Amino acid sequence: MGALQLTLGAIGVAVSVFAWGLFVAGVLRMIRIIRLGQPDATRNGPFGPRLRTLVVEFVAHTRMAKFRKVAPWHWMVMWGFLIGSAVLFEAYGEVFYPGFHWPVIGTWSLWALLVELLGIGTVVGGVALAVIRQLNHPRRADRLSRFAGSSFKAAYFVEAVVIIEGLGILGVKAFKQASGLEDPPLWSSFVTAPLSNILPASPNWVSIMAITKLLSGMIWLIVVAKNLTMGVAWHRFSAFFNIYFKREDDGGVALGALKPMMSGGQVLDLEEADPDKDVFGVGKVEDFSWKGWLDFSTCTECGRCQSQCPAWNTGKPLSPKLVITQLRDHAFAKAPYLLAGGSKDMAGDEVGLTEDKYEDYKKRLESIDVLAMAESERPLIGGADELGVIDPEVLWSCTTCGACVEQCPVDIEHVDHIVDMRRYQVLIESNFPSELGGMFKNLENKGNPWGQNAKDRLAWTEGLDFEVPVFDGELGDAEYLFWVGCAGAFEDRAKKTTRAVAELLHTAGVKYTVLGPEETCTGDPARRAGNEFLFQMLAQQNVEVLNTVFDGREPGQRKIVVTCAHCFNTLANEYPQVGGQFEVVHHTQLLNRLVRERRLVPVAEVAEDVTYHDPCYLGRHNKVYEAPRELVGASGATLREMPRHEERSMCCGAGGARMWMEERIGKRINLDRVDEALGTAPSKIATGCPFCRVMLTDGVTARQNEGAAGSHVEVVDVAQLLLTSVRRGLDRERQDVPTDESPTGTALPDEDKASSG
Q1: What is the pTM for the complete model shown?
Q2: pLDDT tens, residue by residue, 478-494
Q3: Would you say the C-alpha torsion 690, 692, 697, 698 has a positive or negative sign?
């Protein structure tokens, strides 16, 4: 141990003590800040499934692998950080004693190989990630760049440290071999061994490289400890917890059902709620749960959510990434005020930090800097003139399509947070787009968003050459309740789907019934617009009716078939929250099963080119991708996939109650989707949701009026394609059999519905 080693060692120890102290203090402060959020006991277990999800997601990089060009490089860097930490701590010995190595494993050839691979992988991975960031820089692609709005300085700092760490690992190893301190086999040191032949044989260089490796890590600790909002760095730690505490303990993402409205860690009972005590949605950042605060802290600003967002891609102000980072910056800036005990009531008056509440009132007040006090005055939702954290245009641009949640590699729950903020705006502030007022009134008074009379719910049956059975108090031998939905009953284009499904079920001999005037809206548009009270009213009313319909039937026999993707999602995933347990199947799933069972036989091919649009609430929210595509194939049509399909499908623009709101900013989402569909040169655009059908039809009509689409292009439901093929076959059969004979159906076997995700 020479003077150089002693000097470098002393510097390393001194810097490390300071850095680790600062870092531990930063971790403790971050934990205190995250705990400012509301309690949420739903995240506590079960331990086994949550741990399994955590291990699978980080070891196999299942979420990260959705962007395959990035995943391998990030995987290298991740393992370089995790296992490379052992190599970093080894540097404390190497600075003082150049020949130092870990006892036992330090002499293993396999350990030498692992260190070699870690060093190479870290350098290569860090360089690759920096190159990817440059190739996707906003200066070249503007809104096409997923990094628009991200902090490049923070990212480049982290990537630089990663590369330096990797070079330090390789440098120490190479100089040890050059100095004769190690002599590993070539297969375990295939880079450092040849490199050592051209390096000077000096143990001092081992110590120099070791201190480089050590100090780069310590500088990283100091910087991140002083910058708690540097998500691109902190996600190295918080991502593990964010994945473990994700909403779905089975590993699924936070899609399908919305999170119930909660207060104080419990699901809020609106009938017994106290406005003076309970939290109605999120009106202040502290109203988010601690998991929300953990979400904000974990965002890496990678922009995957932004790259998939239909609002952002059509020129709207909404970026899911920027919503999360703005909430993060506001939360951490306001934290000193909240930690001191500050809080305000709904009127904006201070009720937490008062002289009569705390003996150390003045001391608490002095602990809050002026910036934190200013931050505490900002409204969570407000325009630029109000210094709002989230602009109303941002909040109401969301279609709740779930693309952001589906793509996030660290399981941030964007949609739940956005809807929670909408809930407060609707229920407490009564501040929402004017168009929603009419929709709310129609739902409350007429039971449907169009304001039609309930007696007209059976108008779609007119002209059918068979009788549609209507529930009359007894379910009888009907196996399915056919939930028609508001669009299917009242919207002219959607009626065609309803009629097609009814005819196909009749042809297959499936016993079903409809509710007719007893059916009301499931409440999907109300809930996603933030009107939880109206949703609860409609849902409880429907559950009461449905429980009466299925009275006496076993849970597995309470079957509902539905054509609307939104009704499907609500009945299957959200009604259990209000006591409704039903077996819900989408019409594409049931029809596909009937085709497989040869109860529906497509005979005459639909010899056309068809592209299929995945409805968000059928596909991404419920993972139903194959059934509708198989039906397109069964009809004889040639399927042409759009570039964005299945889990990356582009929204039609109708979700999140956007169907009833004007689209005034940027390009219309439905036009963007139609342009993509037309790029496949189809004769028909098929879908499996009436909302999508309306939006796509409007888009096609607009493009036809502009001369950008042929007059032959038509938007249809997959059921119509199937009916065309089946009906032609039936017409042929009728020409070949005596007129006194008619086809007979067989009873649908008792069988669980196809997977609905």
Answers
A1: 0.92
A2: 999 999 999 999 999 99
A3: positive
